[in-house]
Amino acid sequence: MKQQLKLYSLFIVITAGLLAYSCQPDYKTASEPMNITFSHDTIYLDTVFSSVGSSTRSFTIRNTSNQNILIDKIALGRRGDSPFRINVNGISGEEINNVVLPAFDSLWVFVELTAPTGGLEMIWTDSVTVINKGHTNYVQLISLAYDAHFYFPNKTITIKQNLPYSDIIIPYSILPKNAIWSNDKPHVVYGYAVIDSGGTLDILSEAKVHFHSGSGLWVSSGGELKIDEANIGNYSNPTILEGDRLEPFYSNIAGQWGGLVGGIFIQRGGKASINNTWIKNGTTGIRCDSVGELEERNLVIKNSRITDFSRVSIYSGFGNIEMENVVVANAGIYGLYCLGGRVFIDHCTFDNNFPSSRSTPMIGLFNRYDDGRGQYRYRDLREAYFGNCIITGSKESELGFDFSLEAIFNYKIQGSLVNINTNPPAANFDLTDTSHFSQCIFNEDPSFMIPSSYNYELDSSSKAIDIGLLEAAQRVPYDAQKKNRIINPDAGALERI
Fold first, then answer.
1. What pLDDT does 7 receive?
2. Following CA atoms 417, 422, 427, 432 in sequence, which dihedral angle do they give, to the nearest 10 degrees?
3. Checking DSSP bridges between strand 168-174 and strand 48-49, what pairing results, if any?
4. Would you say residue 31 lies in a domain?
5. What is the pLDDT at residue 51?
6. Residue 10: its pLDDT value, please?
7. From 127, 254, 421, 486, which residue has the greatest number of CB atoms within 10 Å?
8. 118 & 207 share domain
9. Where would I find the H helices in 323-444?
10. Residue 365 CA: distances (Å) to CA of 181, 274, 324, 339, 362
11. Does the pTM exceed 0.90?
């Protein structure tokens, strides 16, 4: 009986093999070279940093004939010396031989790059060589790569969460005591780069800093961040802080960097001074922690731009902030959120035309918040001053308030152009009250030159021209582009001459 079972099993195996063989397609291939075409003759990969892999690009090899083709070889021109990698229909390697391309069908070829370290800027080239019966075709490969300074995390903070939520892990590294980031080549940050107590980070003029997703700078208590402290840069050639995707498509896409505590987190007791800088395309741009009542300013920003943040451009939780000649544009929730504390702002432009819908104004001023259990907590808004500013955007009202008499709520807007609802259903402000609104104009068009290209200079028809007050102009006599504004000052960061 056992012998019969063995013979029966062998019969099944042989029969299955014959059936499988009979189902294989007939890949009889042409004996002569046949014409093949390519979806692209050149593949341009991302601009990348050395040692960091690119995204994947692809092209197809097409057989337009009615005969199957046996491609002798698909290979990288430089073989093992190439920084590129290829994959042909799921098979990887620097050289792939005897590939069948059926009639009227295509092969997908996927290409990636990891550039080695070397010069500051390198153009890497190679080709994919396709050989068919002695006929050779090429698809060119091109990518630009930059060498960079890299900062990788070597520690973690774990924030415990109640089930079913997972614990939150924040990766970080602590910078040297007196770190200097030069402008010789880009800086790329993974996780949080922490400026420890007693330490400083000097980011020099025209340096470029790129942050991976979820990454940022953390200024600890007693630490200090200085960007272009010597103030030798300028608005047109700024120091840049942005994400690490270098393709032009991503240059103004919000949400690319910034972790749990924001992009630049200034912890209580830390300080930051920022000059001639463009901070862009993250989640929360700057998060400024609380200060004591008598503490000096913990954030000063001058002659800079903060644009395209998916949440909040500047978040102040009882911080103490000074700003002058700053353009803040395009935020998903708030461009400036102030919960108590102090802000003193001269000649700044706030313009919110974020591409997605939003329910909040560009600027929100608050002296209370809901603690999540139906109870209000209060924080004195001791000072919120806006002198010669533009506050505008796509919403009817771009300046909002929520306050209680249980805490101080002290604000004043002077010499400014403001988009605001002049007759809100539950009015908590009075535009005729000169203790809060002085010599302002409301709901007029600031007429920026080309805001879609981040040019917030004023057109000749702008209603913001010559409306500024001399008092604020004397505090900030030159605009972001170093133009004198003492005579008939305009509102906003950029004076029209």
1. 39
2. 70
3. unpaired
4. no
5. 83
6. 40
7. 254
8. no
9. none
10. 35, 23, 18, 6, 10
11. no
Mean pLDDT of all residues in 22-45:
76
d(CA 399, CA 343): 15
Q: Which structural domain, as residue segments, surrounds residue 458?
A: 149-475
Cβ neighbors of 83 (< 8 A, separation 6 or more) are: 113, 114, 115, 116, 124, 126, 145
Task: Identify which of 92, 41, 38 has the alpha carbon closest to the alpha carbon of residue 61.
Answer: 38
Closest C-alpha to 189, from 226, 158, 149 = 149
DSSP secondary structure letter of residue 250: G
Number of domains in the chain: 2
Geometric angle at alpha carbon 96, from 70 and 133, rounded to 5°: 35
Give the model confidence (pLDDT) of 101-133 as tens digits: 999 999 999 999 998 876 656 788 999 999 988
Question: 168-198 b/e with 16+ CB inside 10 Å = b?
Answer: eebbbbbbeeebebeeebbbbbbbbbbbbee
**Bond before 489 cis per omega within 30 degrees:** no
Is pLDDT of 270 > 70?
yes
Are 52 and 165 in a shared domain? no
Question: Going by DSSP bridges, is the β-strand pair 399-402/264-266 parallel, antiparallel, or unpaired?
Answer: unpaired
25 has pLDDT over 70? no
Residue entry with tokens 């001791």: 382
Among 197, 202, 196, residue whose Cα is nearest residue 180:
202
Would you state the pLDDT for residue 50? 86
Return the number of other C-beta atoms located less than 10 Å from residue 266's C-beta: 29
Q: What mean pLDDT is reported for the chain? A: 91
Q: Is 491 among the domain residues?
A: no
Listed in sequence order, the residues at least 6 apart from 247 whose beta carbon sits closer than 8 Å to its beta carbon are: 46, 47
The DSSP call for residue 445 is -
Specify burial of residue 255 (Cβ count, 10 A radius: 0-12, 13-18, 19+). middle
Greatest alpha-carbon span in the chain: 111
